[in-house]
Amino acid sequence: MTSLIPDLAPVAWALLALAAVLVGVSKTALPGINTLSIAVFAAILPAKASTGALLLLLIVGDVFALLSYRRHADWATLVRLIPAVVAGVVAGALFLAFADDGWVRRVIGVILLLIIAFTLWQRRRTVSAGGPGSGRAARIGYGSLGGFTTMVANAGGPVMSMYFIAARFPVKAFLGTAAWFFAVINLAKVPVSVGLGLITPSTLLLDLVLVPGVFAGAFVGRWIALRIEQRTFEWAVVACTVLGAVYLLVG
Predict the structure, then answer these.
(1) Which residues contact 111 (CB under 8 A, 6 or more apart)?
(2) 33 lies in which domain range?
(3) d(Cα 90, Cα 83) in Å, to the nearest integer?
(4) What pTM was computed for the model?
(5) pLDDT of 139-187, one tens digit each?
(6) Domain count, the chain
(7) Buried b or exposed e, range 21-59, using 16+ CB within 10 angstroms
(8) DSSP state letter for 227
């Protein structure tokens, strides 16, 4: 059985463990920080293996997020996002079938930076009640890009974080809506990932070793979320998203 676990250097295991902790933190406090976990997994593991391994850890994190914030979701927003997200997932699957790893990383990095710039620009404008992210155009744009990036590289979190920030969701509504959104999306991706060979017995054993890190991160994130101020929360999400996007472009 142990032969199925990747033979990695101690420093590589340490980085993967840190990435697992960040997965937990991202699910219960700072969604944008998950892009750093994507970067670490992609740097240490083969591209396909990293996608499958990270997906399973994200699902574990989703459980903690739902336990913490399930009552705070904005269901009307989730229902309105469905058509755009489905279209994005389909487009992401087609892109994944033809693009190499380098193109995947760079395209997602560019999308994230454009989303950040657009969101910050929107927040500086004088807008009507309901927030800049509540309109149909924003819903289609963010939803389709969120579906695309989550299918391609489990990187939908930063995109949807920018949407929820643009819509000016309070911290708990933000985290509750994101929790349900990604719990459903990530579970739906499991059969596809198994069929593509992204989830294997080796992947399951690797995740079994790393799951305690997700647990620890989830509790740390819960502690942060109960104490963080709205403005600090929003800028932390933006900063983490920028760091991850830059890495995808130059890494």
Answers:
(1) 145, 148, 149, 159
(2) 2-250
(3) 11
(4) 0.80
(5) 888 899 889 888 887 878 777 877 887 788 888 888 889 899 999 999 9
(6) 1
(7) bbbbbbbbbbbbbbbbbbbbbbebbeebbbbbbbbbbbb
(8) T
